[in-house]
Write a structure and sequence with these properties.
Blueprint (H helix, E strand, L loop, with lengths): L2 H11 L2 H20 L4 H10 L8 H10 L6 H5 L5 H11 L6 H8 L10 H12 L9 H7 L4 H18 L6 H16 L1
Helix pairs in contact: 2-3, 2-8, 3-7, 6-7, 7-8, 8-10, 10-11
The structure holds fe (ii) ion (FE2) (2 copies).
């Protein structure tokens, strides 16, 4: 699918808030790609599509996952919104024709992180958090600065913040977020 067509589709599929956020993530991902020598076009595309499944109604999210053998765990059944990342990978591939594995993986992992995060995984994870229209996330100004100096540290600290936030709110943690956290802890030990 051509870039213009992707944009037109996203404009239709996403609500205004999500569409503006999406443009912000694509833009920020491009900037980070420039800073860290990643393919700018791919980073832009991953940013553009990271939330492509976000505005699918929740019951529809569950149905689509079930029909296409995308595993749903207990926590995801309780909060179907969590499914938008792995369903996003599916939609990006099937509807938008994305075949680049790195882009698809970055979409799948964008809310939780994971072990062995690639440069693009980190770019999208961080861009999602610091894009210009975000205003409620913790330590935003700090991360916006740090992201262009130390991407690993920024990713790790945002994961840690997310874990602490969920603990404070008494929310159950997603397994992949903990896997990501442990991955960065180990990486620090090796350093
Ligand atoms: Fe998302
Ligand atoms: Fe997002």
């Amino acid at each position: 699918m051509k870039r213009k067509e992707i944009l037109e589709n996203l404009h239709k599929e996403l609500d205004d808030y999500r569409f503006i956020h999406t443009l912000g993530v694509a833009y920020t991902a491009s900037m980070l790609a420039m800073a860290y020598n990643y393919n700018i076009d791919d980073a832009y595309l991953a940013g553009l599509l990271h939330d492509c499944a976000k505005c699918i109604p929740n019951d529809e999210k569950i149905r689509l996952c079930e029909e296409n053998n995308i595993k749903i765990d207990k926590l995801e059944y309780e909060n179907p919104s969590l499914l938008h990342a792995k369903l996003g990978e599916y939609v990006a591939n099937k509807k938008y024709g994305i075949e680049n594995k790195e882009i698809l993986r970055a979409i799948r992992l964008h809310t939780t992180g994971y072990s062995d995060m690639t440069l693009l995984d980190k770019i999208i994870y961080v861009a999602d958090y610091i894009e210009p229209k975000r205003d409620k996330a913790r330590n935003l100004e700090y991360y916006r600065d740090l992201a262009f100096k130390d991407l690993d540290k920024t990713t790790f600290m945002i994961i840690e913040d997310t874990i602490n936030y969920n603990k404070e709110k008494g929310k159950e943690l997603i397994k992949d977020t903990l896997i990501a956290y442990e991955y960065f802890i180990k990486m620090e030990e090796v350093k």
